[in-house]
Write a structure and sequence with these properties.
This protein has about 575 residues and is mainly alpha-helical. The chain folds into 2 domains: about 500 residues, no CATH class; about 30 residues, no CATH class. The protein has 26 helices and 4 strands. Strands 1-4 form a two-stranded antiparallel ribbon. Strands 2-3 form a two-stranded antiparallel ribbon. β2 and β3 form a beta hairpin. The chain is globular. It starts with 15 loop residues before the first helix and ends in a 19-residue tail after the last helix.
Length: about 575
Amino acid sequence: MELNNVAIGDGQTTGPEKLNELNGRQTPLAAELPPKIERSKPQLLYAINENPVWYLSIFLAFQHYLTMIGAIVSIPFILTPALCMSDEDPNRGIIISTMIFITGIVTYFQATWGVRLPIVQGGTISFLVPTLAILALPQWKCPAQADLDAMDEADREELWKIRMRELSGAIAVSAMVQVVLGYTGLVGKILKYVTPLTIVPTVSLVGLTLFEHAADTASKHWGIAVGTTAMLTLFSQIMCDVTIPVVAYRKGHGLEVRQFQLFRLFPVLLTIIIMWGLCGILTATDVFPPSHPSRTDVRLNVLTSAKWFYVPYPFQFGWPSVTLSGVLGMLAGVLACTVESLSYYPTVSQMSGAQSPPLHAINRGIGTEGLGTVLAGLWGAGNGTNTFGENVGAIGVTKIGSRRVIQWAAVIMVLQGVIGKFGAIFILIPDSVVGGIFCVMFGMIIAFGLSTLQYVDLRSARNLYILGLSIFFPMVLCPWMQKNPGAINTGNETVDSTLTVLLGTTILVGGFLGCFLDNIIPGSPAERGLIEWANEMPLGDDNINDGTATDFDFPCGMNAIRRWKWTYYVPFLPTYKLKKQN
């Protein structure tokens, strides 16, 4: 997550009439309007519609690929143990390859036909919270280690595959809600109830819920974990402005020596490489005893047994199973990702030199993200897709907002996803190194959620009450529900499982409490943060399509779409709500 890149509206303001509607009264509220901030246009090397030469595009695309790969590979370190998969199982590499492969496909479609902004789609930690709640049900808990050791290879493989099929069905079906919200335009109608005090507990609880998994992974060797956290802090915060000279190409000037912000761009990658190398030295010198989890050769058989080339395909782990409890539980992750992605769209449009995204582009972006999550479920990635905050930050640092660069990055991801050995390499990263990365990553997710409090009045006792209850109560109830899955006994197993998952998913309970309380407890629009939030997210009738936002037009076929008047009523087409010309 990039805390420095908070969504900023692009000249959209909320008029007095809209504020009167929000407040439920007819007295003028113009005095409550925040002052309009004049912002200079970003100085870009390449704007959204500008295309670097192909070889430079590939280099810049690989940079985006490296920025997101660290977050992608961290997900299986939490997911696969919950699936009862052994550390040495080569299928862990296949899951990573599948995630990268789907990321490439969805990213290309999103940048070309979806929201058409230079954003990267990929796996998200938001889906891990409901995933762990589902796998905590009695029927999905892993057997005792002694029983696992007694299983033959075929039974052990079926053990995790049946759980993956349950997750795949839950992810694919729940994501259809996001598809409907986006492509039908309902997202603009529903989000008027999704306030800052809904977003804060929903996003923050993602990181707060996973702290035990970070602790378990880091505890494999606290020295390495703390060193990883310290080095990541050094690179990303203290040395972020330190540059190194490199030879680069600039449009119209040719080759030149330029200062490259290595530590700002690749703090995670550099940290992993250095600490992984340190673990390699400690392994070679036998400082780490045999079978120590921080040794670099402890899972070497995963790499040697992985295939060189493997093309992920739908239902590769079997036909997905669908249960009501799984679908409703996974819906919490879908809704959290929807809100998070919406906060990035205005930011990326400004950073890439594009016009403010019209409603049709926002609808199409959310619908496409949902479609990508459906594909991820059908392919057996064990996760969904979401906009990567890390790549949003990379655009701001590199000043490269070209859509073509992201399209090339998508091609690289697809190619890397079919190289089986590549996915297996990341399984060799020592657990303690990953644990140190988790400590920073999960903390940043918490902070990103809390940053939304900038819109609300924190001097209000009303807001403090809602905030405290919506964060603390889920942390009390949900872990207890997961530890006591038989607490609910209505006599109907489906109802019991569904309620157990729903009440065991922190982001769902917290988000519901925040949304419900904020919409029923009296409070003024300014107090609730609705005025500034409306400036950030101009949806519904506030986002008028006047035909000037051509950056979001389709790459082809626009002449025909403009001729057909019925397209003016289709929420995901570029002519949606287009003003009639005199």
